[in-house]
Design a protein that fits this description.
The complex is a heterodimer. Chain A is of the alpha/beta class. Helix content of chain A is 48%, strand content 7%. Chain A has a 5-stranded parallel β-sheet, sandwiched between helices. Chain B folds into 2 domains: 131 residues, no CATH class; 211 residues, no CATH class. At the A-B interface, α1 and α8 of A face α7 and α16 of B.
Chain lengths: 314, 428
């Protein structure tokens, strides 16, 4: 028995030593530091975790919440200019569904009480699957009540950290991996949490450029939008819902019946709760403003955001 | 409560069967035990299935049936501990084992924790004597147990859970994918269920070995089988042998004329399918396997492939490869029914596979899952003559190299063990 226990202890020691050597070699090769560690493993999404790290302990009066439609299509500069305040935070992240958006709004509102919520969205957000995460854990993290040490071991997984360094590190850092905001996966935020894609250098993917996924919209998504709208009304939060458009090259040839039905349904839900709905589809948006059918580049985001505010302020 | 009741019942029945003075009383106690055990299993597992089907049948005849259906939660492991208890009662009745006076020993046999929820299905004649014996710690056995557990964790967390993500995606959206993608889905499911269930068995057997118990072997590289008969000698061995000993042989086995053989084979495979779950899909799965098995039985070829494939050789013969691949394809085809939620989904799945879209490029190509499956096949092929493939791997290597190999497996387990996926056989 003593030999067995001794060998088990030695094996554990050997495993830790081997892991330490590999990490040291990786550090020597890439020059990573503690700052390069990924955000805590709060949810299955690296993008969302990064955004939560960005938003931690940050109070803002105006927040934008949504998927990449809100992350990339809303120009922070234009929002700031319109509201004449610096108290703005874009909490959006790739692939958030309407249920995720509802969760974030309720969690953030319970901590910081924003006065205005902006959602830039389109039909894609009504197809997305929901992310599973622990609301209390996320709330504690945003408040900053957990220590960095606790956060590191939060839902600790070797896979999470290993995959990050192998596949995802380039999304958050210019170091060794990327040449700036020229990739879809970029998570290099501006001061407020938005992302502006470089219009001159962006590496457009030809397949994505021509792809429009019109698979089923989830019925539950509309219910969650209703919940968002109702929640904002009940809590005296002003909700601005901006319907984002498609690039002209696709929109002109599209059978629009299903899209128009979707938009009218969304509009009805938002207006029912006395909130603001702005449709970006009532004009054409040149292809030069896009990086794919739905995401604007920096120029497009500026023009779209300005268009929405101008229309709203009329 | 159910486990305690079932344990007490079988313990008491064993004593009563042994103490009975005439055959009639023996039979009566056997009947009581079987009736109550199977009754519990039937009620908790199959009540709603029968009730729903009865309602459907009555309604289809134009009558209106209003039957009481209840939302029952299936007690974990009921299919397994019921079979443990029944094996004891049958063996006492057939005088293969003596009834146990010590209740604690018997209760440990039924509720032995590594195998309680998903087997292997133990026999009283095999495990009870080990429980009664005094055990001493043996270094080599404990290390062997740990290695088997390690391999089990690898199969479950690296192979099965990685495949599960893609399989769920494909089966949940099977109407939207091309035939080629559905082929990918079913091949991955074949490895998911193998990794999941044989992984659990390895963990259970390894854990038991740490405590000095030897459990029955449950899997013996079933995907290297050259025909369906061999597959069923290598897949879920403890269940197959249970049905053989307590159902197939009492029915007459393969003795008698062709009609008797056909009847017995169908009964065993149908019951086996039904044991897996209260759904027509499992019954079809069992039926299909019976159809695969019967020609071999009737032609007397069901015991052609007894030996380990390509024993002592590095590579298999070309004919063996053809046989292995054909058997695997047949198995995969049957798995479609096992995995589908309804017969309708299974039929629609099969239709898509046999449509021209099977020649399209698959929409989903899970490189990671196929790489892991490749690693699994290579290691299992290399170690197919052992009880589990890494039993003697590295035995002659320098210690540091051997430990590095184990660390590599630990790393793969940690790396792929991100999300918890429940063992499939926990629900049976």
């Amino acid at each position: 028995m003593a030999k067995f226990i001794k060998n088990i202890a030695l094996f554990i020691l050997y495993t830790v030593l081997l892991a330490f050597i590999i990490i040291a070699m990786y550090k020597y090769k890439t020059g990573i530091t503690v700052k390069d560690m990924p955000a805590p493993n709060l949810t299955p999404s690296y993008s969302f975790n990064e955004k939560m790290r960005f938003a931690r302990k940050k109070k803002a009066d105006i927040i934008a919440v949504g998927s990449s439609m809100c992350l990339d299509n809303l120009s922070s500069d234009v929002v700031i200019k319109n509201f004449k305040t610096d108290s703005y935070l874009n909490l959006s992240s790739w692939g958030l569904s309407t249920r995720d958006i509802f969760s974030i709004i309720t969690i953030y509102s319970s901590i910081y009480k924003p006065s205005t919520v902006i959602i830039a969205s389109n039909y894609r957000d009504f197809q997305s699957t929901d992310k599973e995460f622990d609301h209390k854990q996320l709330s504690d993290y945003l408040k900053g009540s957990s220590s960095e040490f606790d956060n590191f071991f939060l839902n600790f997984s070797v896979n999470y950290y290993f995959t990050y360094f192998v596949y995802h590190k380039y999304t958050t850092s210019g170091n060794n991996f990327t040449s700036g905001n020229t990739f879809y996966e970029s998570l290099i935020y501006d001061k407020y949490g938005g992302i502006s894609f470089d219009p001159s250098n962006f590496k457009i993917d030809k397949e994505i450029w021509n792809t429009v996924d019109i698979s089923n919209l989830r019925e539950a998504s509309y219910h969650y939008l209703d919940s968002i709208s109702f929640f904002c009304s009940q809590n005296k939060i002003r909700l601005l819902f901006f319907q984002t458009p498609m690039r002209e090259g696709i929109y002109r040839n599209l059978n629009k019946a299903w899209l128009l039905k979707h938009i009218s349904r969304v509009k009805a839900i938002v207006l029912k709760n006395n909130q603001t709905f702005i449709d970006g589809n009532d004009r054409f948006w040149p292809d030069s403003l896009f990086i794919d059918p739905l995401h604007f580049n920096a120029n497009g985001a500026r023009e779209f955001t300005k268009y929405c505010f101008d229309k709203m302020n009329k | 409560m159910l486990l305690v009741f079932s344990t007490c019942l079988d313990y008491y029945s064993g004593l009563k069967i042994d103490g009975a003075k005439d055959k009639r009383t023996k039979k009566m106690w056997l009947f009581i035990s079987v009736f109550i055990n199977v009754g519990f299993l039937g009620f908790f597992k199959y009540y709603n299935f029968f009730a729903d089907n009865f309602i459907t049948a009555i309604n289809s005849l134009g009558f209106k049936a209003d039957i009481w259906t209840i939302k029952l939660i299936l007690p974990v492991g009921i299919s397994f501990y019921t079979f443990h208890g029944l094996s004891y009662v049958f063996d006492v009745y057939n005088k293969k084992t003596r009834p146990r006076k010590g209740f604690i020993d018997y209760a440990l046999f039924v509720g032995f924790f590594p195998l309680l929820v998903a087997g292997p299905i133990e026999r009283a004649t095999h495990l009870l004597p080990q429980i009664e014996q005094k055990r001493t710690f043996r270094y080599s056995t404990a290390v062997d147990g740990l290695k088997q557990m390690l391999w089990g964790f690898f199969k479950k967390m690296a192979i099965a859970d990685t495949c599960a993500v893609v399989v769920n995606l494909i089966f949940n959206g099977s109407n939207h994918y091309s035939g080629s993608t559905l082929v990918v889905g079913i091949v991955l499911f074949a490895f998911q269920i193998y990794g999941d269930f044989s992984g659990y068995s390895d963990i259970a057997i390894g854990t038991a070995r740490l405590f000095g118990f030897e459990l029955l072997r449950n899997f013996a590289y079933p995907y290297f089988s050259r025909d369906i008969a061999e597959f069923w000698r290598r897949w879920h061995i403890s269940l197959t042998s249970w049905f053989k000993d307590y159902l197939y042989i009492p029915l007459g086995g393969s003795k008698g004329n062709a009609l008797v053989k056909i009847r017995n084979t169908f009964i065993v495979f149908l019951v086996s399918g039904f044991w897996h779950g209260a759904n027509w899909t499992f019954i079809c799965w069992g039926l299909l396997n019976a159809v695969y098995f019967l020609p071999l039985l009737l032609m007397g070829k069901n015991r052609d492939n007894i030996e380990i494939v390509a024993k002592g050789c590095i590579f298999p013969a070309f004919t063996d490869v053809i046989k292995i691949v054909s058997t695997f394809c047949l198995t995969c085809f049957a798995w479609i029914f096992f995995r589908s939620a309804t017969i309708g989904q299974a039929i629609s799945y099969i239709k898509t596979i046999f449509s021209p879209s099977v020649f399209n490029k698959p929409e989903i190509v899970p490189v990671r899952a196929f790489t892991l499956i490749g690693i699994l096949i290579l290691i299992e092929w290399a170690g197919r003559e052992q009880l589990y493939p890494i039993k003697i791997t590295g035995a002659k290597w320098p210690g540091i190299l051997r430990w590095t190999f184990y660390v590599g497996i630990v790393f793969l387990i940690l790396y792929f063990g991100r999300q918890q996926v429940l063992f499939i056989y926990f629900k049976f």
